């Protein structure tokens, strides 16, 4: 009977910290939306909101890590439970870094707005890449909540679409800079924005890899795609 009581308590602690991770993910997703809004609507007010949220994201990352360390020390979990806690810690770190990328987008948006060529650059062309990255982050959080390895595999494949969008946008920016050298400085800012968005997709893919690690017990971070597919299917 005491064992069952301890198990129930442990499950409650796991559910509690998992909820916190998902809450952090929602905050970062909102940050990314705000950063893109700031860029496409030239909103200095929204830039300030994104930067302000960074402090809350950082604080929550620290709180979750403390909670995870406490659970590991007290419960000394093994096998899948330990993998789950380790993956939660890594997922939290990736979410915080995705938030950092959103802050980069916001700060670059501010720099672009302050330049004279702000409205002549193809800022709106980043909308699709941003929607893909934001959607991928949301899917990663949903897959994490359900520990869905098939959804995780689909996320890994979808990250390739964001990479292609990024490559196409870089080619377009090069054309802008060649046609009008006065846009070089602002175009480079926009290039950093595109790269930051692409990195959000990478962090979503990392979370997908952690899901596979939790469920299958295998680290697939550097595995060929066909090998990952075989493991899941």
Could you characterize the architecture of this molecule?
The protein is globular. The relative contact order is 0.13. It has 233 residues and is mainly α. Helix 1 packs antiparallel against helix 4, helix 2 runs antiparallel to helix 3 and helix 3 packs antiparallel against helix 6. The chain has a single domain, classed as Methane Monooxygenase Hydroxylase, Chain G, domain 1 (Up-down Bundle), CATH 1.20.58.220.
Number of strands: 0
The largest β sheet comes out as: none
CATH fold-type name? Methane Monooxygenase Hydroxylase, Chain G, domain 1
Count of helical regions: 7
Total count of domains: 1
Quickly give the structural class. Answer: mainly alpha
List the helices and strands and how they pair.
Blueprint: H1 2-41, H2 44-75, H3 79-114, H4 127-146, H5 149-179, H6 184-216, H7 225-232
Helix pairs in contact: 1-2, 1-3, 1-4, 2-3, 3-6, 4-5, 4-6, 5-6
Jot down its keywords.
233 residues, Methane Monooxygenase Hydroxylase, Chain G, domain 1, disordered N terminus, mainly alpha
Question: How would you briefly describe this protein structure?
Answer:
The chain has 233 residues and is mainly alpha-helical. Helices cover 86% and strands 0% of the residues.
């Amino acid at each position: 009977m005491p064992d069952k009581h301890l198990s129930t308590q442990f499950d409650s602690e796991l559910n509690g910290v998992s909820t916190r991770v998902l809450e952090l993910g929602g905050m970062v997703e909102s940050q990314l939306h705000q950063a893109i809004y700031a860029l496409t609507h030239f909103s200095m007010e929204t830039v300030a909101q994104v930067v302000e949220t960074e402090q809350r994201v950082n604080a929550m990352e620290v709180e979750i890590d403390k909670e995870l360390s406490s659970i590991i020390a007290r419960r000394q979990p093994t096998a899948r439970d330990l993998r789950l806690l380790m993956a939660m810690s890594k997922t939290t770190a990736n979410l915080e870094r995705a938030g950092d990328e959103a802050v980069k987008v916001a700060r670059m948006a501010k720099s672009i707005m302050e330049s004279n060529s702000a409205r002549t650059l193809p800022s709106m062309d980043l909308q699709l890449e941003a929607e893909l990255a934001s959607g991928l982050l949301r899917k990663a959080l949903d897959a994490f909540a359900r520990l869905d390895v098939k959804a995780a595999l689909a996320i890994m494949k979808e990250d390739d679409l964001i990479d292609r969008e990024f490559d196409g946008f870089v080619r377009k920016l090069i054309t802008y800079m060649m046609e009008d050298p006065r846009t070089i400085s602002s175009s480079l800012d926009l290039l950093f924005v595109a790269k930051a968005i692409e990195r959000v997709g990478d962090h979503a893919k990392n979370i997908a890899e952690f899901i596979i690690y939790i469920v299958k017990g295998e680290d697939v971070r550097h595995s060929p795609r066909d090998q990952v597919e075989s493991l899941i299917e």
